[in-house]
Fold this sequence. Notes:
16 helices, alpha/beta
Amino acid sequence: MKSLNKTAISTHFSAPAGEALSPQISSHDAEIIRLTEIIRSQDIKIQALIQEVAYLRRIRYGVKSEAMTAEQRLLFDEDVVQDIAAVESELKLPATPVAPRSRAGRQVLPEHLERVEVRHEPESCTCPACQSNLVKIGEDVSEQLDVEPARFFVIRHIRPQYACRQCETITAAPVAPAVIDGSLAAPGLLAWVAIGKYLDHLPLYRLEQIAARQQVNLSRSTMSEWTGRMGFALQPLADRLMELLKQRQVLHADETPVKQLDPGAGKTKRAYLWSYRSNDLDAGPPIVVFDYQASRSGQHARDFLQGWQGSLMVDDYGGYKKLFARDATHVVTELGCWAHARRKFFDLQVTGAHPMAEEALRRIGQLYAIEEEASAMDSVGRQRHRQENSLPILTDMHDWLIRLRTSTANNSGLARAIDYSLGRWASLIRYAQTGNLPIDNNPVENAIRPIAIGKKNWLFTGSERAGKRAAAIQSLFATAKLNGIEPAAWLKDTLEKLPVWTMRRIDELLPIKPIAQIPTAS
């Protein structure tokens, strides 16, 4: 039986049979190759989906920043310290010693704050032992920080009237002009409403509730009317800020979506708040201007920057591309943002250990370390520092990315990250050839972030006009903050002066640090 099997096998694999199987083997090899390609393609797709899911989970459940700030990292530590303190209070235990602060001594309270002195004299000025009179030899002074909630009070304007018996005329001090004639709101109250609505992002009904706790009736409709009139009065200042901003040679630009009420449809629609910011590496006070528009069309950016020439730092949104089409009268140079380029590799790295993404992050980190070293330099020194240190790193990185791309599968996350950087390389390296161009678009993103967070409170704008009014007032407040000016005090002072101010002196009312020369408004 075994011999028969061997014979059969031998016959089966004879030369003619082998020739008959050759087409079948070739067909199987082709099928294996085809299936291998399908598996490889599916592996790439699976990796891309894993990366996308991890990214969405991080956006949905985690922090959206690329690295947690020191404050964010300490959130849980602070909760633990609070819990320990609560338990110690409940058990009446002595306080647990905390880690020593980096600075020595107790926190120094701000000098500009009002000091209210409370003197604590002993019950008796005689010695309890011998009954002799006590002699003052010094005093112990300690300070505590206190706060008084919004305090409403009434200002009574009294204008005595005087009569001339001979001429039969009456004389009295004139009523001072006001932003809102005949209104019961003083400039301080108007400023409180505007700060609450636009800076603290409190809806008017919450301000109404705050006032009601002190038995003050401030209806939402009344505050809405005040806000509309304030916006009209402050618009010339916002327009002047825009004029001064467009005198700068380097700008940042970005946009964020906001919801606008669509009464006819009974729902909201998407609008956009475009933001433009000055360059911190240029001379002059920092300025940020917001422009509210009904869409994300790049035409809005072109309209805002019409006639402007200079260098514009933007992300890769296609709406900006037509700005960079040069002609004889319109020259705008594109600057690439290294924070956006870095984010592509970071999103890849955060899904798991990825050596190539990690290497890219390391190289980009070197560029930022060089910028930190040059932070105190002038433009000439920074340009020399960049040429000596940044340009060699960029040249080496470009060669490395090209070599890496040739060995990277198309449509993979790494390929997309590399293509983003190589596709914008000319605009990404432009900063390193100068001493005054920024490395990224973070300044304008930081300026727009408070509004992006605040819109979770106010949910939507009521109309396009309301959005434009908010953009104008936000421009003034954001610029004040950039210049270290307290917005509430500035606005109160401005509302007092504005009714009698002349347009020729409008620059004196702007919330910017004074500089030597600013072209006056016509």
